[in-house]
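ARCHIVE RECORD
Type: protein–small molecule complex
Small molecule: zinc ion
Source of inputs: curated submission
Record status: active
Notes field left blank by submitter.
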Amino acid sequence: MPGLEDLYREIILDHYRNPRNRGELPTPPAHRVEGFNPLCGDEIVVYVDVDDEGRLTDLKIGGQGCSISQSSASMMTAAVKGRTEAETRELIRAFKAMMSIHERGLDGDGIDGDGGPVAPDPSVDMGELEALRGVVKFPVRIKCATLSWNTLVQAFDEASLERSRE
Ligand code: ZN
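STRUCTURE (tokenized, with ligand):
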């Protein structure tokens, strides 16, 4: 009988081989943001459509890189599409908390309130994202897993900046 680790590996490989929401969206109205992980050479391009209520009506992923970076991006799109920005930011926080055991306070992006310990939020259902939890055992790969999530935060920030200018 396959163990949990095998199941998680299957989920990661499935998203790597059959990435969800891969492609591009026309800009504007979509926002296009690029992320790069120099430690590994991973590139992620995130396209997001956010409506006036802040709901993520569509998102697409481009770019290339290792299996962890690309499958994490694919899982992210499946998890957040159709959610509001607030719901998505909550999931991003929970995901980054899950991935931050070895790098807390090092990335300085303020997402998990640098300097304070982050307790896992039991109210957030991580679903398939649990499959990536094992990545924290390999600290050099954590940036691979969080790249698309950080890029999505940047896309939200740019989108809200633009809305405030209108
Ligand atoms: Zn990588």
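CURATOR ANNOTATION: The two ends are 57 Å apart (CA to CA).
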